[in-house]
Amino acid sequence: MVIAAPAGSTSVREGFNRTSPLPVWLRVTLVLFAAIALFDDLRALESVDQAPATMVVIAVQMILGYVSLALIAWRPGIASALLLVPLALALFTHNYGFTLICAVIVTIATVSMLPRVMTIIYSVILATWTITAVVVESTTDVLWIMGTPLVTGVLIGVALRFFVIQHRENKARLRSIEAAHQQLREQERLELARDLHDVVAHELTLVTMQAAGSHRQNDPVVLHDTISTMENAARSGLQELRTLLHILRESPGAVSRNDNSSGLTTGSLESLVDSLSASLTAAGFSVTVNTVDGFEKLPTSVRGTAARILQEASTNIIKYAPAGSTCLLSLTTDANSVMIRTENELQQSYRSDDGEFPMTSGYGLHGIQERVALLNGEVTYGPQDDRWVLDVRIPFGDA
């Protein structure tokens, strides 16, 4: 049968074996002090006129007292236990001076470094020893002569214990703050990466596709229109990039975790849908647009997220849909949510045997999922009947 030890006894046992947290220089100082003081007191003992047996007991008392003082450098629990022996011998030799010095220093270490239970036990033993000394010496002067230094040692130990605890708590708090700051920096980097992707990807994709198509175009009028489209796309991307940089300069590190918009000026959703539709048409797609009114009343975060989703979806259509194919941009709303749906034909050459699309980086779709998740929305996407479909629902209000 196994009997579990009480929690208090476990605490005392662990405290008894606890390693001293003192720095190396202080450990060396304690050991040197104990060694020098022991050597000096042993030499002084030669001139004391006492019986040989008493001299031996005093010498043992000195050795054990200073050894307990040196042990503070490694095991303060063992040092406090060992000190009880010279304290007991002092009651018989009536020699308290050096033992009292060792007791005060060991008391400071015990109270400041050992667990509370062990500190209480040690303090009770120390008080009992002081009362016993008063009885043995038959004078209350002993109470003041020895009690005052010991109480002072206890108070100093309590003060050191308080400062040590505060230091540990401050270090733990600092680590917590540093971890929180690191998490915020990671969040800011994620927000910035997402915003840069939103700003640059659509316009650069449009410019790239227009430039690629212009190589096969000989009509000067069409080439002029293509160049105009590329110029407008480049200017639009540059303007949004400038807006992002302006926001970063005005409010460094102020990317809000609760603000799910891109942080850029996107204008009205109707204007954005018209602009994206024009970009898709200029890229050679047949665009079907389905929108309703009333988007101005939506929260800013919802409007900003919807704008970025539409922009990312349009970018993917330009990049991956077959040239000249049909596509759909749908933006509707009901009493408590915004619905976004985009469709485009699949290009067979982009599809691998397992149905994946290796040419996609996935950053855009991951960004859409992250934005919608922050607003407690839903996202589904994938191939349906040879078409790529993206469905998004973003709740607002009390939804």
Automatic annotation (TrEMBL):
Its EC number is 2.7.13.3. The keyword Membrane applies. It catalyses: ATP + protein L-histidine = ADP + protein N-phospho-L-histidine. Keywords: ATP-binding, Kinase, Membrane, Nucleotide-binding, Phosphoprotein, Transferase, Transmembrane, Transmembrane helix, Two-component regulatory system. InterPro entries: HATPase_C_sf, Sensor_HK_TwoCompSys, Sig_transdc_His_kin_sub3_dim/P. It holds the Pfam family HisKA_3. It comes from the Bacteria. The keyword NADP does not apply. It is an enzyme of class 2 (transferase). The chain crosses the membrane at residues 22-39, 51-74, 80-105, 117-136, 142-164. One of its GO terms (molecular function) is kinase activity. Coiled coil: none annotated. Residues 188-251 form the Signal transduction histidine kinase subgroup 3 dimerisation and phosphoacceptor domain. PANTHER family: NITRATE/NITRITE SENSOR PROTEIN NARX-RELATED (PTHR24421), NITRATE_NITRITE SENSOR PROTEIN NARQ (PTHR24421:SF10). This is histidine kinase. The lineage of its organism: Bacteria, Bacillati, Actinomycetota, Actinomycetes, Micrococcales.
